[in-house]
Amino acid sequence: MLQENSDAQPLAVVAGGGSGIGRACALQLAAAGWRVIVVGRDAEKLTATVAEIAGAGGQAEAFQADVRDFERLGELAGRVEPEGLDLLINSAGGQFAAPAAELSPNGWRAVVETNLTGAFHLSRQLFPALRKRRGAIVHVVANLWQRGAAGYAHSAAARAGVVNLTKTLAVEWAEHGVRVNAVSPGMTDTEGLRRYPNREETLARVPLRRAASADEVAEAILFMARAGYVTGEVLTIDGGLQLVS
Fold it and tell me: In terms of Cα–Cα distance, which of 144, 126, 143 is closest to 75?
């Protein structure tokens, strides 16, 4: 469990906090005494996450926003900048399967802007608040970027961009004490996995013979969040799939 000894209550923003891995991160942080702001497009899911945290005695609030909306995220930045921010977890993302030859410009744009541009928007807008507390960023990068991913050209390209963005921001922002890392999950038991067309075939190749739980991925994310001398790194959590694929 991630815990802090500082007198000031730590504050985290979790993008994509309404479901899946982001929700698991928000719940674990709140249980460890953090105040959490969950960000996402679906107000109902955000409200449910906040209610669950409050029911367990934690502190959380919802901020409805699309990570593609730079100006809206500026409003979030204005809210947290006066006190500073300890952690940004970016689990916002989305994709759909489509052969590259049939992928429309709008389809390409929607996925790249959500995954790559959204990562930049969040990092850029929240940097002043993170700098104030020498905080950390952890991006969640679906494990498509390490090799060719047939049917997911838009998503794989966007994730590869987030990996390089992570490394570049780590270099640029190290002098301000802001660490930037990524966690790259493989097959994870979320709603997205249940829609994955080759789910059973892929799971059969995983050496651990199962998908990760959202909580297991969240634990890896929080490890990277507290690893004070690690920056610019990508931690793969895929049950060993990359070793055999």
Answer: 126
**CA–CA separation, 53 vs 24, rounded Å?**
11
Helix/strand/coil percentages in the chain, nearest 5: 50, 15, 35
- 46: tokens are 């955000």
- The two structure tokens encoding residue 13: 């923003």
- In sequence order, what are the residues at sequence separation of 6 or more whose Cβ sits closer than 8 angstroms to the Cβ of residue 209? 203, 239
- Could you give the domains of the chain? 11-236 (3.40.50.720)
Is a pLDDT exceeding 90 seen at residue 70? yes
- pTM of the predicted protein model: 0.92
Q: Which residue has the tokens 């921010």?
A: 85
Query: Distance between CA 85 and CA 126 in Å, rounded?
Result: 8
Residue 4 and residue 222 in contact, taking contact as beta carbons nearer than 8 Å: no
Pairing mode, strands 35-40 and 87-90: unpaired
In this structure, what token pair is assigned to residue 22? 């982001």
Q: What percent of the chain has pLDDT over 90?
A: 78
Q: How many CB atoms lie within 10 A of CB 121?
A: 24
Query: Residue 151: helix, strand or coil by DSSP?
Result: coil
For all residues of the chain together, what is the average pLDDT?
92
- DSSP-assigned beta bridge partners for residue 39: 15, 63
Burial 154-169 (b: 16+ CB within 10 A, else e): bbbbbbbbbbebbbeb
In the 3-class helix/strand/coil scheme, how is 215-242 assigned residue by residue? HHHHHHHHHHHHCCCCCCCEEEECCCHH
Find the length of the chain: 245
